[in-house]
Design a protein that fits this description.
By secondary structure, this protein is of the alpha/beta class. The protein is 32% helix and 28% strand. It is built from 7 helices and 11 strands. The strands form 2 sheets. It has a 7-stranded mixed beta sheet, sandwiched between helices. A 4-stranded antiparallel beta sheet has the order 2-1-4-5, covered by helices on one side. The longest helix is centred in the C-terminal third of the chain and has 17 residues. It is globular. The structure holds adenosine-5'-triphosphate and magnesium ion.
Length: 231
């Protein structure tokens, strides 16, 4: 069963001379439990694709299905709730709430949804991400890599069915990157999560089950599309 699916997905920005075809006809199917890496040069459309998959932005044309449901049909409020229940995001720009401390940031989405925090699990995530002695700090008191780890912890804390991560290890040293990837893999398997991760790092991409290469808003190659696919 495909948990994520796009049909002829297009996202254009601007118009006339300033028209940018950030996505230009993407057809992608991701099965439940898959761990896929999206690779491509800067500006190729990776973040745009991730935002579309998570319903953060609406397509210019085409469809996005999550669990078989066409999310372009959802009204803004419904889309927001749907997103919070199903999807965990790690953004390229962390998006931590500056006035909340590390722990509060991590559990915020769970509380927003009126759910109980699984304290043991959250504690485990915090330990693995090496944030235990920083939980009372504000984001502004953290390094870039630490903020990135908080963003990852926040995404994992709610055990989302789908985890969409934009360069989750972009600011981490290689040792920490490997630890974080290990954590993503383990939690992914334990909770049957589907993970789609953007990375610039070829070594990190190789740890995924599948590598999708994007160029100029189109899929250039896909190692998981019924074997190898090349455009
Ligand atoms: N809000 C926007 N308005 C106009 N153009 C945009 C907007 N967002 C993205 N773009 C353009 O769309 C294209 C794809 O952008 P996107 O952010 O998806 O690239 P990316 O592959 O994530 O790059 P990077 O690796 O640098 O993060 C780029 O040419 C970018 O300039
Ligand atoms: Mg990007």
């Amino acid at each position: 069963m495909n948990v994520l699916s796009t049909q002829n997905l297009k996202k254009y920005y601007g118009n006339g001379e300033n028209l940018v075809k950030a996505l230009d006809g993407v057809n992608l199917d991701v099965e439940r439990g898959e761990f896929a890496a999206i690779v491509g040069t800067s500006g190729s459309g990776k973040s745009t694709l991730l935002h579309m998959l998570g319903g953060l932005d609406r397509p210019t044309e085409g469809k996005v299905y999550v669990d078989g449901k066409d999310i372009s049909d959802l009204k803004d409020d419904a889309l927001c709730v749907f997103r919070r229940r199903k999807i965990g995001f790690v953004f390229q720009s962390y998006n931590l709430v500056p006035v909340l401390n590390v722990y509060e940031n991590i559990v915020l989405p769970i509380e927003l949804d009126g759910n109980t925090v699984d304290k043991n699990y959250v504690e485990q995530v915090i330990v693995v991400l090496g944030l235990s002695d920083r939980i009372h700090r504000l984001p502004s008191q953290l390094s870039g890599g630490q903020q990135q780890r908080v963003a990852i912890a926040r995404a994992l804390a709610a055990k989302p069915a789908i985890l969409l991560a934009d360069e989750p290890t972009g600011n981490l040293d290689s040792r920490t990157s490997q630890d974080v990837l290990g954590l993503l893999k383990v939690t992914g398997e334990r909770f049957g999560q589907t993970i789609v991760m953007i990375t610039h790092n070829e070594e990190i991409a190789q740890t995924a089950d599948r590598i999708i290469r994007i160029e100029d808003g189109r899929i250039k190659s896909d190692s998981g599309r019924g074997g190898d696919y090349h455009a």
